[in-house]
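FAQ

Q: What does a record look like?
A: Structure on top, sequence underneath. For example:
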């Protein structure tokens, strides 16, 4: 049975450590993904949220264009793209649609729709597109989507999303675990 999969992009399809080398270089720090225990990255730098935001606005297009895929993402998404509809719903800035679609083409990632919101709340789009399951790396997004849309959410496990999760938000470590979980879910 054909399903609609809602999928976040950054930290989910792209490797969750993508931004760290850029931060290390620009801010003269030596962080690793294991050091990042919160989604607010300015906490790990000697800058204000505003300063970090200004830095991000100058670098986001380049970082997104150069983002590496998460391990297994292409293999699994190509497989799913044959049998299911893939709706990518991201907090990326709206003006980056071309760069985002170029990245998807370059990496050979199939999709039915890409929606860039410029904000983190994805509930309206999840409801609008009637997705059956969602994949996310941001803890509060995963919980909110599950609780408000009543669908399972696969939460890609990272050091920055370790708060407890309710039933219905399922922690997975990689795309192969996602594939396995969804295979069992589709059988039920």
């Amino acid at each position: 049975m054909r399903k609609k999969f809602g999928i976040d992009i950054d930290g989910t399809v792209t490797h969750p450590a993508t931004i760290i080398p850029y931060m290390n270089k620009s801010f003269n720090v030596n962080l690793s993904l294991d050091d990042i225990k919160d989604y607010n990255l300015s906490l790990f730098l000697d800058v204000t949220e505003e300063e970090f935001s200004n830095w991000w606005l100058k670098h986001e297009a380049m970082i997104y264009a150069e983002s590496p895929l998460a391990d297994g993402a292409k293999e699994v998404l190509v497989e799913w793209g044959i049998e299911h509809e893939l709706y990518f719903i991201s907090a990326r800035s709206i003006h980056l649609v071309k760069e985002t679609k170029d990245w998807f083409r370059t990496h050979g990632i199939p999709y039915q729709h890409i929606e860039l919101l410029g904000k983190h709340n994805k509930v309206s789009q999840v409801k609008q597109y009637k997705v059956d399951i969602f994949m996310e790396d941001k803890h509060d997004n995963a919980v909110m989507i599950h609780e408000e849309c009543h669908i399972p959410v696969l939460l890609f496990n990272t050091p920055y999303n370790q708060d407890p999760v309710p039933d219905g938000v399922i922690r997975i470590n990689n795309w192969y675990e996602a594939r396995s979980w969804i295979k069992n879910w589709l059988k039920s």
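Q: Is there anything notable about this one?
A: The chain has a mean pLDDT of 96.
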